[in-house]
Amino acid sequence: MNYTMIAKKQENFLLIYTLSIIMQPKDIEEFFRRLAKLTPDPKTELNYINSYTLLVAVVLSAQATDAGVNKATHKLFEKVQSPQEMLKLGEDGLKRYVKTIGLYNAKAKNIIALSKILVEKFGGNIPRTREDLQTLPGVGRKTANVVLNVVYGEPTMAVDTHVFRVANRTGLAKGKTPEEVEDKLVKVIPRKWMDHAHHWLILHGRYICKARVPLCPQCIVRDLCAFKDKTK
Question: Is 160 a catalytic residue?
Answer without folding.
Answer: yes
